[in-house]
Amino acid sequence: MARAIMLQGTGSDVGKTVLVAGLCRLAANRGLAVRPFKPQNMSNNAAVADDGGEIGRAQWLQSLAARTPSSVHMNPVLLKPQSDNGSQIIVQGRVFGQAKGRDYQRLKPQLLGAVLESFEKVAAGTDLVIVEGAGSPAEINLRPGDIANMGFATRAGVPVVLVGDIDRGGVIASLVGTHAILDEGDRAMIAGYIINKFRGDISLFDDGISAIEGFTGWPCFGVVPWLPGAGRLPAEDSVVLERLARGGAGALKIAVPVLPRIANFDDLDPLRTEPDVELVFVRSGERIPADASLVVLPGSKSTISDLADFRAAGWDRDLQAHVRRGGRVIGICGGYQMLGRTVHDPLGREGGTLETPGLGLLDVETEMASEKTVRNSQARSTEYDTPLAGYQIHLGITRGPDCDRPSAIIDGAPDGALSADGRIMGTYLHGLFGSDAYRARLLQSFGLSAERRNYRESVDRALDEVASGLQRHLDPRWLAGLLG
Questions:
Q1: Which candidate, 115, 103, 204, 114, places its Cα nearest to that of 158?
Q2: HSE (CB half, 13 Å, CA atoms) of 205?
Q3: Number of other CB atoms surrounding residue 377 within 10 Å
């Protein structure tokens, strides 16, 4: 069995995903065969693994960092929230079912076998597996039947490194408090801890390290500062959208309504890196800016519910006004479905509403299908005759007169739709803006003299920067033991 270490957090969003990615790249740069693993993930940012099926987008990024093909076994349980208390459950890449929170707690013990099976497959033929926990082991109310944190670590015998986020404050209390409330068996799994997201003079925290060791006996494996490269990596959770900069005074303003069930919003990351683009995330209670030249409707885990919220926010009126002013609109996946006349859900896959009117900007209709389309795809833009590469994850078939003007040819078949004037476009292809030639032509169509940047290379450079930062700031003796 390969060596393995598990990073768990004192809370959500403490930076575990980036640390795992950085450690994967650091190990890969040293010639080790390394793979990431996350037993359970909750995210609507999904990717299509190289062996088919859905995994969390973060595990796809971590596999890129590890320079290894992605696999559904790297994230055997993926929860995709569809409502405030219910999620679609993906097990080893395939739809397993749906459950509300309390029902899922009862279901978890049945999924442990799949988690352990996937871990064995990931570990086979590998030097090192770096495991990411979910949430926090301090959520002891969820400990019975746990498969995401200590339940997995104790069953698989994987030592744990606890990660604390100093930027949010209270890091000493969060680490000491975690030590205090874990039972003896779980506490024994923790080998040490890492302080993450430090700003300023790291030596000022020396007394904090001494205090934590005095209370817990745990060694500190490093104090990691804010790493600039981390900000250029795709984010995993929609909570990050609350902190994303709204952009500078870019020559082109692009507005993105933030839907309650927004999915695969990392589609927008390539646009966020363009210096002449001001990407504005529009929250509930805000108006779509009147001076936006382009509005992008992103993916959605629940098109019908998000359409209702879109209207409740008044964004339907804003969008109509935007189009009357000559503005352009791009809808991706669920956003594409919203742009049509009607969305039908005869099987009730998204809930109790079987039919709802769309925004009426494209002459198409969508019917939710019984089977989900999940695949990586090669495509070509019909607008700009440029190559595209991305993936499809959608539950629906869209037809109508505007489909006679497809926006792309995907895997040899027409996809999407264009309005007669070419200002409204929809597609099922995620990753559209990550295609460098397409992105450059899109920006040029708005009058920008955009140079063609290689977005994938920029992500790869950011991963190397994160790895270098970890090498500088983590305990060299601990790293030698992990990577030796």
A1: 115
A2: 23
A3: 21
- Strand 342-344 with 365-367, pairing: parallel
Structure tokens at 246: 């709204």
- Three-state secondary structure call for residue 476: helix
* Stated pTM of the model: 0.93
Question: Can you tell me the distance from the alpha carbon of 18 to that of 38, in angstroms, rounded to the nearest whole number?
Answer: 13
Tally: H helices and E strands in the chain: 14, 28
Q: For tokens 């060694």, name the residue.
A: 219
Token pair listed for 30: 């040293």
Q: How far apart are CA 357 and CA 163, in angstroms?
A: 46
Helix axes 16-29, 476-483, angle to 10 degrees: 70
Q: In the structure, what pLDDT confidence band is assigned to residue 369 with cuts at 50, 70 and 90?
A: confident
**Local structure of 229: helix, strand or coil:** helix
- Distance (Å, whole) CA 104 – CA 90: 12
- In whole angstroms, give the CA distance from residue 266 to residue 295: 16
pLDDT in tens, 59-102: 999 999 999 999 999 999 999 988 766 899 999 999 999 888 78
- Residue 130 and residue 20 in contact, taking contact as beta carbons nearer than 8 Å: yes
CA–CA dist 9, 287 (Å, integer): 36
Under 8 Å CB-to-CB from 136, ≥6 apart: which residues? 8, 9, 10, 11, 12, 149, 178
Catalytic residues: 333, 430
**8 Å CB contact between 77 and 93:** no
**Residue labelled with tokens 């100093």:** 166
- The rounded distance, in Å, linking the Cα atoms of 403 and 416 is 6
For residue 422, pLDDT beyond 50: yes
How far is the C-alpha of 266 from the C-alpha of 234, rounded, in Å?
6
- Beta-strand ranges (E) seen in 28-174 are 34-37, 40-42, 46-48, 54-56, 77-81, 86-91, 94-100, 128-132, 160-165
Angle at 362 (CA atoms; ends 357, 364), nearest 5 degrees: 70
